[in-house]
């Protein structure tokens, strides 16, 4: 079973998290999610336990527990349905530059005072 662990103290490492869950059974993997630019913990992670009964016991016992002064959140991790994954739309109309064209925020050319663009001030 995949278990979500949230509100983790930023100082906790994967070995400490593994140790907390191993008190309830065998742990197959531990992953604390980190910021890709700074490498710092984002304050949440995932623990994988093979035995569902042991995993349920760990969830019951550890949810709401205090770790380094923080109350952690522990629950069963549910995968997001395929249709709800976050996507980025790179097909935006309009555009920047000096001759931006029209878009939902105005636009128009750089020096055209009657362009109908938003009230962003003039140069």
From TrEMBL:
Annotated ranges, domain RRM: 1-79
Keywords associated with the record: RNA-binding
Tree of life domain: Bacteria
Compositionally skewed regions (Basic and acidic residues) per UniProt: 77-87
Region (Disordered): 71-123
Compositional bias annotation for Gly residues: 93-109
A Pfam family hit: RRM_1
InterPro entries in the cross-refs: Nucleotide-bd_a/b_plait_sf, RBD_domain_sf, RRM2_NsCP33-like, RRM_dom, SLIRP/GR-RBP-like
PROSITE patterns registered for this protein in UniProt: RRM
Record's keyword annotation contains Isomerase: no
First and last residue of the signal peptide: none
RNA-binding recorded as keyword: yes
PANTHER family: HETEROGENEOUS NUCLEAR RIBONUCLEOPROTEIN 87F-RELATED (PTHR48027)
Name under which the protein is recorded: RNA recognition motif domain-containing protein
Lineage: Bacteria, Pseudomonadati, Bacteroidota, Flavobacteriia, Flavobacteriales
